[in-house]
Amino acid sequence: MAAELAEVAAEDAEVAADEADVAALAADVVAVAAELVAVVAEAAADVALVAAAVALAAALVALVAAAVCDVKALDADVAAEVALVAAAVAELAALVADV
User: Which of 28, 34, 49, 99 has the fewest CB atoms in 10 Å of its CB?
Assistant: First the structure.
């Protein structure tokens, strides 16, 4: 009977050791999962930064396009003013020629 009790105690000790190993493995799995969550969060932040950079680049392109349109509009205004001055000079020349 003592031998049977010793054998049961040994089996209980082996089961306890196995349970401790399983608990350690479970803790490792939880730690790896936490690291994975951190990596995914970091990747999401990186994606957000890239998206923000793309949005800024798009805004800069829009600003440059607007500036080009403004310069073209100014060029058209200047050309119109030059045409008016040329017409005025032509009229002045005609008046001088009449005198």
Answer: 99
